[in-house]
Amino acid sequence: MKTKWIIPCLLMAMGVYAQQDTTLNRVVTVERDFQPVIQSAGKINQRPTILQHDLQLNPVIYSTYSAPLSVGHNVSLLQASETKFTPQMPLNGILEGGLGYRNTHFLFDYQIHQKKKHSLNLYANHDAYWGHDAQAHSKIGVDYTRHFSGLDFYANMAGEMAWWDYAVLTEDDSTVYIDNSILWNVAANIGVKSTAKQPIQYRIQTGYIALGQMYYLDHIVKSHLDFKWTNNTHAAGFNAMVKNNFYYESVYIPSDEPFCCFEYVLRNRHALRVEPFYEYTYRNFRLHAGVNLDMNIDPFMGEDKQLSTLNNFGFAPSPNMQIAWHTQDNIFHVYANVLGSYGTAMRDEELLYNRYDFNWRETEYIAPYTPVDATIGLKLRPAKSLLIDLYGGYAYLGQYATYVDIYHAPYTPAISIEYLISQQSYQQWKVGGALHYHYRDIVELNVHGSYYFFRRTEPIKPVEDTEHHPIAYDRPDWDLTARLDVHIDSKWSIYSNNYFAGSRWANTSEGDKQIKPIIQLSMGGQYIINRWLSVYLQLDDYLNRKDEICYGFQSQGIHFLAGVKWKF
Could you tell me if residue 208 is inside a domain? Predict the structure, then answer.
């Protein structure tokens, strides 16, 4: 009898145990609403400097590098992407050095983390070209962050210096050399920002920049206040910026003396931007509705000059509207942006366009103003390894500053360079696309191209005795970037990085001049010896075209760099 009852009991116990085991191994899926990030499909605004070791796929601008200092940085590793075959343990520091044909490279970066409360980052880099177009660029800085519950306190400081003795092409294709010049700046920021996911997010920051060259010294104070309140699907807030510029300007004083006469006068400019906005997010849909309220104030601006095409007061509003929607499987994504911008008409912004501009010109720098820049596009992901982005758009630049000429004054031993500035306005239609493809972790391809249609009106303030074509100065009709990375195995990887741009027009005192198209081809590779040590080789502009970055100024031409990187 006992045996008859024992067997059923054992079977029941086994069943209960099996149920418990199934329950323990149950797969639980946690879902939440996707937060799409609206990305602009427009052209990237900056071309990489040839000095930069980690080349990015960026179009050309006037200057061979961006002069204003941005405090804080991201450490660039080897030029080719790091291989993913062998997992790499995190390391705190990097020391890199390279030597090549007419150029040198040095990079140091060290990150210190202490009990997840403190973080300190020390970094320095130096790049140089030698020869007839010699130039050098150096930077050193420190970043510090203190983590508290719900917020971060941060402070950073950096110094940067650029030196060059550049060769310039004249109208008769001869070459003259600029006397060596130095551009330097020092910057520091301090601020706090929220970190925890809570209804109220904020950032408070203030910073100082000292910017100097041969004939000027600028002091810039820039502060930010950002605030955002979020409640599930709704959000509202504002982003505010105040920028104050104190500088000395050389003013010509008429005199009968043979070597007279300039006087340095202390002046100031001020800029204010406030962007109130509202955001709505629901499942696969996101809306950002805002407006940029910009104002430039120049107490020394004359009655015959203006900071804005809308009014003499320097008030210029612009939209900030972004909308995006995607399917649940993320295969189809549509977006539209209606943006605008108004510059600050200050020295740090001006040097983004041309570092060779000295401050002795008589014409005022005009803040670029774009009342509207609209883009509509769609993204398709027909396969997990393939992403296609197609877009089109329209922009109206109601106030755009362009450099008019390079004058070679017959002074010895130095060659003086002057720029005049004219204002122009034009309309721009654009179509373009981007493609990203990868095959496992072996091959990665990125292509981005745009074609532009320009319709330019007459300049607002044309330069006398100049001829003007109905085109936009310094803007190519098309541009294309293409990069291919191939990870051969866990040790070897190679890359090809290329940039193409159509012809451009330059406005000169002798009429409009056409600049040839740009073709910049680069390749390189790396070999990982172990997790600490790597070697690399890169070859740039191997067609030796020496394209003009801006009118009269050529790129270096063919050059290579071989180096070693040590991670510690």
Answer: yes
